[in-house]
Write a structure and sequence with these properties.
Helices cover 47% and strands 11% of the residues. By secondary structure, the protein is an alpha/beta fold. The protein folds into 4 domains: 9-130, Response regulator (Rossmann fold, 3-Layer(aba) Sandwich); 147-321, P-loop containing nucleotide triphosphate hydrolases (Rossmann fold); 322-404, Orthogonal Bundle (Helicase, Ruva Protein, domain 3); 421-470, Arc Repressor Mutant, subunit A (Orthogonal Bundle). The strands form 4 sheets. It has a 5-stranded parallel β-sheet with strand order 2-1-3-4-5, sandwiched between helices. Helix 4 links the parallel strand 4 (82-86) and strand 5 (104-107). Helix 5 packs antiparallel against helix 6. The chain is elongated, with a radius of gyration of 29 Å.
Length: 470
């Protein structure tokens, strides 16, 4: 089982009993990657050989004091948050330490819950800074460190590339990820990419939680002990156990009943769960990735979904755009699906009228719908040219009910009290065709029913007119 956090927490105190009790308190809360140091003079050599996530330092120590240590760490390892542990009479000195760069300070008492919370908060802040730094580098340089990881996702969309850069930045975080988007956009595919980039040693365990009642949900995720209920003749580990050191992917999280949401909150927040029939909680280091086709604004409504769980799951948020917002991917996807369908025979040629037909369709089922259309057409094709008869029938039958038509895209032309000029209508029609095809003149011309040369002339006239206006 992998340890949390990835880099160790360094505890520095000359009292062995306090180090031992604080270590146990951290481990009981899932923080088990810990280095204990009784001699403060050894800290510089530890930092020189080991990347430390967070430090907790006692203020009053023989040799190098906590105050001196803070100054030294700030000089050599400024990214490491340092928490100061003080006695009751040292609060004023602790405040001076904050001014010198300490992350926070806590009074040493028997109750260590506030100190554990402080360590956890410092870990999360460190992860967030690391992710922000990675994002800044990727966006400024417009690069991907691991483009091969995204090979299963067929796209040339700039919006998708930005999403890939974000995914690379958050992949190694331990915090949950919420993936939103319409059905068929590829949420599970993206979840698997996040897992592959995370470097986690465990497996990727997907489960669709839609339609699971509370008992089945608990048994599926948390498992049960032998004799926990009638028919439980042997113990059964749940999917959380199977996902140890890996990733647990919860699909259709928006349909989860409220009773199950309470149990999931404990898993996400405390990293612990209770198998059915057991009174002993178990810890997990599985990372949670959740997905839903419910709009994030609707998911945030308390009557539908617990707000505390929603915001815990949304530590990182990936929203995948529908296919109608990245139509430039349609030719690539058609070619990809044709290759899939024709592995054992020659790939049929797509007729020129196919792409104008697809570019004008809003795809309520997104990439999955396009995949089924192409696979179905390929199975009905006997010649060298793809038979698009069934695609044409599907588009004609479903076009009127598509989401884009309801929202105004692709609806009938609307006129106000004053009619626009013919020149203006033509200009807007040409620009709309170019927008829908991602600037592909051949496809836009096919969609408008004109030759490419005719479209090119109109585009040149529009360009000249805009230059004259300037």
């Amino acid at each position: 089982m992998s340890k949390y956090p990835t880099n160790p927490v360094l505890l520095v105190d000359d009292e062995e009993t306090w180090l031992r009790s604080f270590s146990l308190a951290l481990k009981s809360h899932g923080i088990d990657n810990i280095i204990c140091c009784q001699d403060s003079s050894e800290v510089p050599s530890i930092l020189a050989s080991t990347e430390v996530e967070v430090m907790a330092v006692d203020l009053a120590m023989p040799g190098m004091s906590g105050e001196e240590l803070i100054v030294e760490v700030g000089r050599t390892n400024p990214d490491v948050p340092v928490l100061v542990i003080t006695g009751m009479g040292q609060v004023e000195t602790a405040v001076q330490c904050i001014k010198r760069g300490a992350f926070d300070f806590f009074v040493k008492t028997n109750d260590k819950s506030s100190l554990v919370s402080g360590i956890r908060h410092a870990i999360e802040i460190r992860e967030l800074r690391r992710e922000n730094s990675g994002l800044r580098t990727r966006f400024l340089q417009d690069t991907l460190e691991h483009p091969e990881a995204f090979a299963p996702i067929v796209t040339c969309s700039k919006a998708m590339r930005s999403i890939f850069q974000y995914i690379e930045a958050i992949a190694r975080s331990t915090q949950p990820v919420l993936i939103t988007g319409e059905s068929g956009v590829g949420k599970e595919l993206v979840a698997k990419v996040i897992h592959d980039l995370s470097g986690r040693q465990g497996e990727f365990i997907p489960v669709n939680v839609a339609g699971l009642d509370d008992n089945i949900f608990a048994d599926t995720l948390f498992g049960h002990k032998k004799g926990a209920f009638t028919g439980a003749d042997r113990a059964r580990p749940g999917l959380v156990e199977n996902a140890k050191a890996g990733t647990l992917f919860l699909d259709e999280i928006g349909d989860l009943p409220h009773a199950s949401q309470v149990k999931l909150l404990r898993l996400v927040q405390e990293r612990e769960y209770l198998p059915i029939g057991s009174d002993v909680t178990r810890k997990t280091d599985a990372r949670i990735i959740a997905a839903t086709n419910v709009d994030p604004a609707a998911l945030g409504e308390p009557e539908r979904f617990r707000s505390d769980l929603y915001y815990r799951l949304r530590a990182h948020h990936v929203h995948l755009p529908p296919l109608r917002e990245r139509r430039e991917d349609i030719p690539l996807l058609v070619d990809h699906f044709l290759r899939q369908a024709c592995q054992q025979r020659r790939k049929p040629v797509a007729p020129p009228e196919l792409f104008p037909l697809l570019m004008g369709y809003p795809f309520p089922g997104n990439v999955r719908e396009l995949q089924f259309l192409i696979l179905d057409a390929a199975s009905c094709t006997t010649g060298e040219t793809l038979d698009i008869g069934r695609i044409r029938e599907h588009v004609a039958a479903h076009h009127a009910d598509a989401p884009a038509a309801r929202s105004g895209e692709g609806a009938g032309v609307q006129f106000g009290p004053e009619l626009p000029t013919l020149k203006r209508v033509c200009a807007e029609l040409v620009m709309e065709a170019m927008r829908r095809t991602g600037g592909n003149q051949a496809m836009a011309a096919g969609m408008l029913g004109v030759s490419r040369q005719a479209l090119n002339k109109r585009l040149n006239k529009l360009l000249m007119a805009s230059e004259d206006d300037e």
